[in-house]
Amino acid sequence: MSDAYQDDHGNNDRSITRDNEGGAPRPKHSGAVKPGAPGPFLIGDAMTGGYGKGPDILHGCTVAVDPGEIAVIVGPNGAGKSTAMKAIFGMLDLHGGAVRLDGEDITNLSPQDRVAKGMGFVPQTSNIFTSMTVEENLEMGAFLRRDDFRGTMEQVYDLFPILKDKRRQPAGELSGGQRQQVAVGRAMMTRPKVLMLDEPTAGVSPIVMDELFDRIIEVARTGLPILMVEQNARQALEIADKGYVLVQGRNAHTGTGRDLLNDPEVRQSFLGG
Ligand SMILES: Nc1ncnc2c1ncn2[C@@H]1O[C@H](COP(=O)(O)OP(=O)(O)O)[C@@H](O)[C@H]1O
Ligand SMILES: [Mg+2]
Q1: CA of 125 to the centre of ligand 2 (A)
Q2: Nearest C-alpha to atom 8 of ligand 1 is from which residue?
Q3: Domains of the chain, CATH where assigned
C-alpha cells in the first residue's frame, strides 16, 4: 500500500465527499467519532417500528456503517430490509430505538433534513425521474445545494462515463443497469457523507452487477461509507466489510462479510448451502 493511499485513505476524488468543503482542510475521516460521541458513523440502533398504525415490522433491528466501509444487509424477501433503510432515512415513525449520524441523534428529523445532514438514499423502486434527461436527474439531486455543483457532476460522469454519453436522453430510455447508475449519481450530487443503496443491482445481468459492485467499491474507497441492501447475498457479502442478516425484522447474524460467508448456518439458510 502506498503512502499516498494511507495519507488520503485512497480518496483521489475528495470533493465528492465533503472533505474539502469551504476549502479549509478538514480532519481525515470527517466521519471520525466526535469527542463524547462514540459509536459508528451512521447507526440505526435497536429500531422498532412499522408503517402508520400497522404492526411493527422492525423489532430491535440494528445496522451501522463506518467511513471507508461497505455494510451489506441481506435476508429473505419481506425480512424488513427496505423498511430498515426507510427507517434510517426517516420515512417511518419508530416506536423504539434511535438513528444517529456522526454522533448526533437524528431520530426525529424529516428525510429532507437528513439529506441536508449528509444522507444520500437510493430507494429500491422509483429512484429516477424517467421522463427527465439523465442530466436533469443529476441536477435534481443537487436541489438542496446553493453552491456550484458542476464539479460534482463531472465526478459522477467520471465514475459512470455512460451517463455522460447519454446525458441528453430521457432516463427512462436507459437500460436497468444504467438507470441504477443515474440513481446512484443523483444521490452523489448531494455530496453525501454516507450513501444508502437499496438493491442497487436489482434486475440487472450478472456482468452488469459485477460492474456496479466495482463502481460501489470505488466510491467506498473515496472514504464514503456505504450501507446497502442486496438480494445477491453471496456476491454482496464478498465485497462487504460488515454484513447483517435480517429475518422477520430482527438481526439474525452479524459479522464481517467473510465471517458470514463461512458461517455454516448462514450458508445453509441464506446462501443456498
Ligand atoms: N409501505 C408499506 N406499508 C405497509 N407495509 C409494508 C410497506 N412496505 C413494506 N411493508 C411490509 O413490511 C414487511 C417488510 O417489507 P420490506 O421491508 O419491503 O422487506 P424486504 O425489503 O426485506 O424484502 C413486509 O411484510 C411488507 O409487506
Ligand atoms: Mg426490499
Answers
A1: 9
A2: 83
A3: 3-270 (3.40.50.300)
